[in-house]
Amino acid sequence: MWLFLGKRLFAIVPILLGLSILVFAMMALIPGDPATAILGSYATPENVARLNEQLGLDRPLPQQYLIWAGNLLQGDLGRSYALNRPVAHEVFERFGATLILAGSALLLCAFFGLLAGVVAAVRQFRWTDRIVTLVVLVGISTPSFWLGLLMIMLFAVHLQWLPASGMYAAYGGGDLPDLLRHLAMPAVTLAVVATGVIARLTRTAMLEVLRQDYIRTARAKGVPERRVIYRHAFKAALVTVIPVLGIQAGFVIGGAVYIETVFQWPGIGRMLVNAISTRDLLLVQGGVLVVAVSYVLFNLAADILQALLDPRLR
Amino acid sequence: MDAVSTPTVRPKPGGRSGLRLLVRNRLAAFGLVLLAVLLLVALLTPLLPLPDPDATAPADRLLPPGTPGHWLGTDHLGRDLLSRLLWGSRVSIAVGVSATLVAAFFGSLIGLVAGYAGGRVDNLLMRSIDLVMAFPYILLALTIVAVLGPGLLNALYAIAVVNIPFFARNIRGVTLGLARREFVAAARLSGARPATLLFGEILPSVWPTIVVTMSTTLGWMILETAGLSFLGLGAQPPQADLGSMLGEGRKLLFTAPHVSIIPGVMIFLLVISVNLLGDGVRDYLDPRLKAGALTAPVAATAVQRDRPADRADGSEGPDPLLSVAGLQTEFHQGDRIHRAVGGVDLVLHPGERLGLVGESGSGKSVTALSLLRLVPTPPGIIVGGEIRFAGRDTLGLSARELRQLRGGRVSYIFQDPLSTLHPLFPVGDQLVEALHTHQDLSSGKARQRAVELLEKVQIPGAQQRMRAYPHELSGGMRQRVCIAMALANRPDLVVADEPTTALDVTVQAQILELLRSLAAEQNSAVLFITHDFGVVSELCDRVAVMYAGRIVEQGPTEEVLSAPAHPYTAKLIECVPVLGESDRKVEAIPGLPPAVDELPAGCHFADRCPFAEDQCRRGELALENIGRDRAARCRKPLWSEA
Fold first, then answer.
1. Which residues numbered 248-307 in B keep a CB inside 8 Å of some CB on A?
2. What DSSP letter does each residue of A253-282 carry, written as one string?
């Protein structure tokens, strides 16, 4: 296991390196002069020149990258001119909010997706299976930003059960119940699509596993059917579903962009959209980098979890 | 699973049957119709008598749906929503389809080249793809828009790029398989240029994969384009697609919800119709799903005995441990019915060892699995007969009663111990589970018993091996574990289904001896399924020979071996190589057993029998007594007492 862990950790080094190059290249690819792009078209020539020097933009690209990567390793992602504060501060503050949202959505979709998938597989060809299949199809075909609006209309406007937007109430909020009340709608909305994907996959994986010889062995041993399904079959199905959970983490973090916009959640997705509109490119760069790295780590976690379940992988 | 592997004729994919399949899949047909209607409306939009979608009319702002002249109402600038909806749909569909085509083109190209070239080219391309996929999907699209700047065309590029990896990966996988096939190698040898080969030979075979990937990603792409426009990063005013309409309408959520709800409904309808159709296309083009392979068997074989069991009476002596009468097990696949077991009678006394012998597909495994209803349903159904174990009909037992028999008084040993042991649990845990299921033991006591059992099957270092996973053991060791598991609850009957077939020849003899001695020690009866008469002669007191789902001969092993009555038995015995007689001719039986979905009348063996006459092919043939404790299903037995 330790060897596996070491290998796996080592393997993400080139991925991180590649990511950093790609994110860096993004800036280099922007048409026109980067400093002008960063400062906006109203910038004075002096300011542009100063920024060019600051960022080392007058030097050759490889050297620029080294400077940038060096700063990155010291936690310096540059400065957001629109917000007038360091990018790193802004990004990490926002990322916390996104993690709360995406993490809850992931928990929701893992729980309900696995449950629905198992139930559908076990009741294959019966009504339960058909209903789950249909609900899943509707779920993955629904635009999440639209679903969010419908939820707001129903639960915030019509029923007035939940707040329509934000992370905490403006007055008297700030505690956990307040956070949960604000979190409920965005987290559920964000989880819907991923739940559908996971339910589908779990169903297929369960069907595949239930046909295996070792399931027949368990039944031939007289193991109660409930145990056959939830212990023997589910564990094996989980091995194939877990990597997909890792991939879904990416969809959930990405999908948070819409949900944060709809529910005014102060996360990194909304920050990115604003930054793109205002052409605050260093902020975009920092945000993209942090999210991408977190996605790599989510996948790493999924790999490790998978190896913990399956001794053949370690 | 002999019977399952019998070749079946599948409908060939083709235009007409494809259409029929699509129609049979009602959801896919619904998707097709819905999509066709939406596309038709979008196409005809310029011809419809609609107001200008961009004409503002401040006096008519935010009219509710149902207003005459504005059936879906108007937005905050007084523009007609129906007109905007239809024009917007055109934009959304066009962008979604274009993005799909762009992604399909570049993705497939990368996949084809990587899969065909292999080696370093493949490595480089696929590592780049991996890197792109290391970004969360939507984030990557956002980044591209950030670089290129907001706009509908840039959103299109972004969505296309983000989807390239899906195509590249899928198509590379298929190409990789194809590039190693004979027809490609042959074309390569004949001097075809790589490009000719790639597009002339490989592309046609890869085409279905491309279509499936397109049909599964198109929905996503429409959704994501709408998403980018919703965020204000796609279509820019005054141009509008469904996403940007939704985005504008969002600001009016509290005053005029219809402005944002209506475009959302349209996106939803578009995407779900594409997804429904896509699922249908995938089911049709993906051979694995088409064969109906993905069905999970239920806990016990279905029993639908519409035929009464014709009880074979006159069984002499003490009550048998197991008696099977007229057992019929069928596999129902589509319109075809495979009669895997067509009326089997068996009797097994306590402590007796009976060999059930036959070729692959003779129905011997299915017979064995039918005893405790372990034949997979679907497609298996037990349609007739009676199975009495210790006086009770196992086909009529409740789930709970059946479970008590399984692994308790009757246990199984299967063919391949690698696939029959659970790969994710240590063998010790699996053994302990067998004990716990039928005995009320403390967990410490159960583990101790498990170690004893492992020692009994001669596994060295049993204590340590408890923690070993199946893949860490050798084939022989694994089968020893299975034997230990089968004997854990001192069963009255052990059903061993070709337990040595998957093993090394050198290990086979040891395993057989182990099984024989342990069964004898516990006085367990053994039903031994094999295709090998050599094994039967070493292990079994009596033998029953199966052919095409029926018993054709049975009797004491010695007698049958020395004087077989059925020509088939005689042929099978000839097949056994004898040690030390290497120049003896081992003859395969000419011909093949009949397909069990098209059984001939009369004797099923007639077509391969050297002695067959016309009368052999007529009427029903019974298993008749030909001597004391001997029976054969043959008009002209080679041996009989009379």
1. 250, 253-254, 257, 260-261, 264, 267-268, 271-272, 275-276, 279, 294-297, 299-300
2. HHHHHHHHHHTT--SHHHHHHHHHHTT-HH
